[in-house]
């Protein structure tokens, strides 16, 4: 049985670029034909989350994947780093760069990122600057990474100022998403990934949101058919949005629904696990809908429907749901100043007219934001 394949096509001024996303069950145990095209006789550096190792139990997919690569190339070098946002820093990046160079790589060498969004972001960034750019492949192992961060070429690390402020756009040459590996995820991480799935319905496709709402219990029970469908649909929507905006100069910014609030909230937790990305974005999306309602763009009924659904998934929906983060209105406003969507020192937010239709709101009035946050905190 052949995997689902989405071809991500990107148009820009200089050249067109495309790459495949492979989605299926048991892909990592049966990926020799897929990998042959990309890794044959190339020097490979596998950067992986240290959750996956030969010593850990229940890592059959990882071990099988390693054995497959060994058949195709004699030069396989592994770099293990911790998962989690505390690894997305300059010192960890330097370690990856220096370790990679010690393997005597050249421009035909290839990096494979095996792990969640953090691994994909930092490994992709390393690939973008090593020897001024080498190829890399994404093997996302979390739901969040499979539906979002592994697709689209955003790579980078965090700054002390905010999240993902240091990085580059560097597209992978392939993404291989094995649904079976999601069973290794803690429930909390799986739910965090669901936030990004729901986001696609909220910004672009109300029918997709309706489907998620109707089938969420099956999805949470790892129904393989339903999971395959939501991962495929999420990646399809993202590929359509980024096709003509690879570097987020326009409509690609819609994919950041909830993220201006979310990234600020995450930074208060200092990336130590108090609150994780999907949870922060869950609050951020609910805040974006409440702000949209307050400003007269979106109905209260639609807003309440969105918030209610996140509550059904036991996800946080309000700043009052997170404790001990010392969040204040003035501190939030300062965080917003570093958001990458801002232009000419004007704040930019993604808001909604309704479920399935987001828009970019430039030049956001700080007085409105201040009043709104004072009510929310």
Please tell me the CATH architecture of the largest domain by its name: 3-Layer(aba) Sandwich
Question: How do the strands line up in the largest sheet?
Answer: 1-2-9-6-5-3-4
| Quaternary structure | single chain
What radius of gyration results from the CA coordinates? Answer: 20 Å
Largest sheet: 7 strands, mixed
Task: Give the count of helical stretches.
Answer: 13
For the terminal residues, how far apart are their CA atoms? 51 Å
Indicate the overall shape.
globular
What is the CATH level 1 assignment of the largest domain?
A: Alpha Beta
Order of helices and strands: EEHEHEHEHEHEEEHHHHHHHEEH
Number of strands: 11
Q: Look at the structure and give the mean pLDDT.
A: 94
By CATH, the topology of the largest domain is Rossmann fold
- Considering DSSP H and I runs of 4 or more, what fraction of the residues is helical? 40-55%
What ranges have pLDDT less than 50 throughout 5 or more consecutive residues?
none
How many structural domains in the coordinates?
A: 2
Please state roughly what percent of the residues sit in beta strands, choosing from under 5%, 5-15%, 15-25%, 25-35%, 35-45% or over 45%. Answer: 15-25%
Structural class: alpha/beta
